[in-house]
Specification:
This protein is of the alpha/beta class and about 170 residues long. It has helices at about 25-40, 55-70, 85-95, 110-120; strands at about 1-5, 50, 75, 100-105, 135, 150-155, 155-160.
């Protein structure tokens, strides 16, 4: 199984009239992530399912990803991907979709970075940049506590060597 862990793109700031759950993508965030998503499409990324945190900025990021990848399904908001997403939640979520071979998961920091760090056994941790995508190969079933980095796309930079994350 291959998962694509996506941190939502840049969003507008939280203000008293705009609570965190309602924050939407900034215009720069939309433009930047469209370019990242096109790079993924051009690299041959295909997904059989896209799940997203229910927060607006994550759903918008997932919609851009779906459009660029010409994904034919519906983007599915999933409460597990909201703030607080962890490795246990990842295992439960993936076990809910055992037939999927390539799945996109859109969420938030610090959760996505922590999961990347745990799966790759990074001693110092890794903070996913806004709008970055990590492709990780995982066992198809059971407890997934280790994965193999395929690449991380952060803007126009592609990281393929886990040593670059240390």
């Amino acid at each position: 199984m291959r998962i694509y862990l996506v941190r939502h793109a840049d969003a507008v700031a939280q203000t008293p009239g705009n609570p965190d759950a309602s924050r939407h993508l900034s215009s720069g965030g939309r433009l930047s992530f469209r370019e990242t998503a096109r790079r993924l499409r051009d690299a041959g990324v295909r997904v059989s399912r896209i799940l997203s945190s229910p927060l607006v900025r994550a759903v918008q990021t997932a919609d851009i990803l779906a459009e660029a990848l010409e994904y034919e399904g519906e983007v599915q908001p999933h409460p597990r991907l909201g703030p607080g997403f962890d490795l246990e939640g990842l295992n439960e979520l993936l076990d809910s979709f055992p037939e999927e071979t390539e799945i996109g998961l859109v969420g938030h920091e610090p959760d996505i970075g922590r999961i990347v760090s745990r799966l790759l056994a990074l001693p110092k941790g890794y903070a996913m940049p806004k709008g970055a995508v990590a492709a990780i190969a995982l066992p198809d079933a059971g407890t997934r506590i280790r994965g193999g980095l395929e690449w991380i796309q952060a803007g126009d930079r592609r990281i393929v060597d886990p040593a670059e994350l240390l």
